[in-house]
Amino acid sequence: MDLSNRTVLVVGGTSGIGRELARRFAAAGSTVAVAGRSPQALSELAGEGFGAFAVDVTDGARVASMRDAVLARYPGLDTVVTMSGVMLMEDLRDPAHFEAARTTIDTNLVGTIRVVDAFTPHLVGRGAGTFITVTSGIAFLPFPPMPAYAASKAAVHAYSEALRAQLDGTGVGVVELIPPAVVTAGQEKINPRALPLDAFATEVMDLLSQDPTPDEILVKAVHMHRWAERDGTYADLVAQRSQALSMLPGRAG
Questions:
Q1: pLDDT in the model for residue 244
Q2: Crossing angle for the helix pair 197-208 and 16-27, nearest 10 degrees?
Q3: If 0-12 CB within 10 Å is exposed, 13-18 middle and 19+ buried, where does residue 178 land?
Q4: pTM, 2 dp
Q5: Closest by alpha carbon to 251, among 101, 152, 150, 144?
Q6: Strand order in the sheet with 51-54
């Protein structure tokens, strides 16, 4: 993928990985817009020269409004990165976890579908373009304290595979970015071995710039997640990660 002359929208790009990728695309020479919920972050990004658009991916009408505003300003849009997401811990012994599960699925999975649906006619109509969906190593190697997060990201993986198959022949590609734990706001508290954001973004951009671009963007640190079942390490790794259930209230000790 030539990163130097694209028109990119990063949905969920107001913080963390999304914000850094937006900056990396811009530094490579692309025109970049960002969409998200934080008015303060959007204002800051607009001050940096990015297009900034408010959106809540759990609201279909707002997604449609954002799409119309983006395409009015950037009719040549050719790349849509959809990465809005929430990470919530849940204790499945407590039925009250259901609201966290509902929020997670609606944001991470259904929100992704809403964004993809909103821009598919435009990209197919152009006959060229790319969707970049964002899943997680947790989609392939669950982190037991976050069951709905794992389920939502596994579903986005499957959805990305189906989307790629259905868009075959249209000129629109589908690339799945699969991050490991990355140091963003608070992530280092969950996993002190999380990959530094700068190193992660550098590796991602190198992989994206390959020709042809891989269907899956796998930094080295996520290989242990992606290939755990193939490598026969899955059961042991899930058992290790299950020790983190002590993080849940009432489970310590």
A1: 92
A2: 50
A3: buried
A4: 0.95
A5: 144
A6: 51-54, 31-36, 7-11, 79-82, 129-134, 172-177, 216-217
